[in-house]
Records
---
Amino acid sequence: HTPQGVFEMKYFFHSGINSAYGETVSSVKVKERIRRIIAQEDARKPLSDLQIVRLLQDDGLVLAPRTITKYREELKIPTSSRRREHYRISSEDTQ
């Protein structure tokens, strides 16, 4: 119970993802990994959510593409086609 009301316990904790190595990785860490993967991608060939799934599998994290989509949207990162279009437009502006 708080001055703002009653909250479920899950409100105070982040969800977790079970890795292939038996560890639980917080959703915050997974989102940060997604952010880094996208930051390091070739802007001319942005990675699809399915390609990100495969890269995370290499790290032992098994997620569905829809989970990547959800996390990417929460991070306010556009789809691969939008990122590609943004790159195309920005490269045309510099020419």
---
Amino acid sequence: MIEVEVMVFPERTRRRARVDPSVPLEKIKIDMVKALGIGEPEEYEIAVSPRSTRQTYQNLRPTPGDTIILVRKEDLAGSSVELIG
């Protein structure tokens, strides 16, 4: 188990947690949403923000000190791209 920061949007909740980096992110998301009691796992997307910008890409596995971000899907609604030319 490694220690990570957890941020939940749009609530901007911050917590610390220990996660098992050997399991897939999808499993971490499911367990994290249940542990936080913030709804159903299907309502969220998960991302990892590395603590260090020098950290190499590691197959989407968290490392100590990283931040795990959970974003409620309804807040992702709408286009993320606007063509301007």
